């Protein structure tokens, strides 16, 4: 098990600093939002290259613990505002999806 | 289980919610589902039931925005189930059997670039509901009715 607090050491958080810390129980990778919607487990760290505003809606509805936007994707101000509004923690990671997911997986299973 | 003591109007055995969805506005798609999620949380329903209802309705919202220029959603909640009725006056679905297959999509390139149009919308709605019925007529519109049982886990 790891936490969103620990991920703050690895990636830069893009929104509100006062979001409650959450446990991360698994990692989920996906870019097709309907696949993510149907399959992302609650409490997962969701790693994706997508960064549009719909990512926030999907993250909120699936109740993932956080979103990690990998491979240099950058959400716009609207997406960040929406994340703040819905309490969705978004990180920006510079690594590739696989390495990013592996890094989080190792944190969970250490 | 729905505990009526936690509902805002304890004398009513039913809660009714209504949402209007704008067409072509993907930035707001999901707002109705988020509101439904909040309402179901306030009723004290189980997280699994809330998640299923929110996911099923979100997919329907995306379909309304992508294919039908919006629509209206009516949600009825009683002690047994959440019933979601989504109505639009869009183009209708020509081939329901194809539309129910995972991977089949008639979405535009613009919609696909946003991460939708994977052909998972209707299959996801079916997967996350206990009952789903589609009434559609080409050129007139589509009504999707979904029931999510509150008792099931």
Beta-strand fraction estimate of chain A: 15-25%
- Report the total helices of chain A: 5
Q: Secondary-structure element sequence of chain A?
A: EHEEEHEHEHEH
Radius of gyration of chain B: 15 Å
Order of H and E elements of chain B: EHHEEHHHEE
Shape summary of chain A: globular
Largest interface, counted by CB within 8 Å of the partner chain's CB: A-B, 21 and 26 residues
Assign a percent range to the helix content of chain A. 40-55%
Main sheet of chain B: which strands, in order across?
Answer: 1-2-3-5-4
What is the helix content of chain B? 25-40%
CATH top level class name of chain A: Alpha Beta
Fourth-tier CATH superfamily name of chain B: Histidine kinase-like ATPase, C-terminal domain
Question: What fold name goes in the CATH topology slot of chain A?
Answer: Udp-n-acetylmuramoylalanyl-d-glutamate--2,6- Diaminopimelate Ligase, Chain: A, domain 1
CATH H-level homologous superfamily name of chain A: HprK N-terminal domain-like
Which structural class should the secondary elements of chain B be placed in? alpha+beta
Number of separate helices of chain B: 5
Q: Over all CA atoms, what is the radius of gyration of chain A?
A: 12 Å
């Amino acid at each position: 098990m790891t936490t969103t607090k620990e991920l703050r050491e690895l990636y830069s958080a893009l929104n509100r600093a006062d979001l409650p810390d959450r446990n991360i129980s698994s990692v989920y990778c996906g870019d097709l939002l309907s696949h993510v919607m149907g399959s992302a487990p609650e409490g997962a760290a969701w790693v994706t290259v997508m960064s549009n505003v719909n990512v926030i809606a999907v993250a909120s509805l699936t109740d993932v613990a956080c979103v990690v936007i990998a491979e240099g994707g950058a959400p716009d101000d609207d997406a960040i505002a929406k994340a703040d509004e819905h309490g969705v923690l978004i990180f920006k990671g510079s690594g590739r999806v696989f390495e990013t997911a592996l890094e989080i997986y190792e944190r969970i299973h250490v | 289980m729905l505990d009526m003591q936690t509902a805002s109007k304890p004398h009513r055995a039913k809660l009714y919610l209504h949402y209007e969805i704008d067409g072509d506005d993907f930035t707001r798609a999901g707002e109705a589902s988020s509101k439904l999620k909040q309402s179901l949380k306030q009723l004290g329903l189980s997280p699994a039931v809330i998640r299923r209802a929110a996911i099923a309705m979100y997919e329907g919202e995306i379909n309304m925005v992508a294919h039908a220029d919006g629509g209206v959603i009516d949600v009825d909640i009683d002690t047994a189930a959440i019933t979601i009725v989504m109505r639009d006056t869009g183009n209708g679905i020509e081939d329901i059997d194809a539309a129910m297959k995972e991977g089949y999509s008639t979405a535009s390139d613009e919609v696909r670039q946003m991460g939708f149009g994977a052909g998972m919308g209707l299959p996801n709605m079916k997967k996350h509901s206990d009952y789903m019925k589609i009434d559609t007529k080409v050129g007139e519109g589509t009504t999707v009715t979904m029931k999510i049982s509150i008792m099931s886990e």
